[in-house]
Amino acid sequence: MMNFLRKNVKTFLWCIAIAFIGGVFLWNFSTRRLIDSVVSVNGTKISYSSFLDSVNARIRNWYDQNPEGELTDDQRKEIKSEVLNSLIQEQLLLQEAKKYGIYVSQSEVINTIRSLPQFQREGKFDPQLYFYILQNYFRTEPAVYENQVKLLITNQKMRDFIISSVKVTDQEVKDEYARRKIKDKEENFKKDLLQEKKILFYREWLFSLYQKAKIINNLDKIEKGS
Fold first, then answer.
1. DSSP secondary structure string, 30-88?
2. What is the pTM of this model?
3. How far apart are CA 123 and CA 115, in angstroms?
4. Contacts of 193 (CB under 8 A, 6+ apart)
5. What is the 8-class DSSP label of residue 146?
6. Would residue 36 be called left, alpha or beta, if left means φ above 0 and alpha means ψ between -120 and 50 degrees?
7. Separation CA 171–CA 176 (nearest Å)
8. Are 216 and 42 in contact (CB under 8 A)?
9. What is the pLDDT of residues 107-146, one digit of tens each?
10. How far apart are CA 48 and CA 116, in angstroms?
11. Which of 56, 65, 176, 223 has its CA 20 to 30 A from that of 139?
């Protein structure tokens, strides 16, 4: 028996190595299969593939602006973090928009796109220019881009709805005007103060959404298993 083991020791070692490698591969594969989303926001899952699409788009845009540059590992991590936070915020706003019955029609999307100057020639929307820019500069399909525009309009509607109730009283204006020792006209300062108050109110409202939300971040698990 011992002679048999000695003669075949290399074969046994190779079998163990193959079994180990196969086990690691199966574990990584099963991890990816079990974790089917990069993040879950109140039960709504965002796929890892859509996350990567957004990350790659941001990276391409960075290289377009910095053709001679090279992204560092820290910069790539920062881009991934920014994209993930953006997707979470986007999903939170979509959920709130649905709750409040905020809807964006296809005609709103089309009209918004047609009004953008980058897609116009001599002041008119040019379909050929539109498709050319999407393909060669944005590197995306019309359906994908139009969905992005729809999301942006939805988010803007949601923001406008939330801050629509924000007001400033005459007394608030007088107190702040005196406290800050503003040299500009009080009437102009009132507009600035109202804008400041709206921005602060919206940030606090958005922060409260994050605090109440159930967010499960799987990014580290997925990428460590890759």
1. HHHHH---SEEETTEEE-HHHHHHHHHHHHHHHHHH-TT----HHHHHHHHHHHHHHHH
2. 0.76
3. 9
4. 168, 172, 173, 176
5. H
6. alpha
7. 9
8. no
9. 999 999 999 999 999 999 999 999 999 999 888 899 999 9
10. 31
11. 223
Q: Quickly count: other Cβ atoms within 10 Å of residue 63's Cβ.
A: 12
Q: Are 198 and 166 in contact (CB under 8 A)?
A: yes
Q: How far apart are CA 84 and CA 53, in angstroms?
A: 12
Report the distance separating Cα 118 and Cα 120, nearest Å. 6
Cα separations in angstroms, 37 against 31, 93, 143: 11, 19, 22
Structure tokens at 219: 């990014």
Question: Which tokens hold the place of 214?
Answer: 């159930």
Please tell me the number of Cα atoms within 13 Å of 202 on its side-chain side. 18
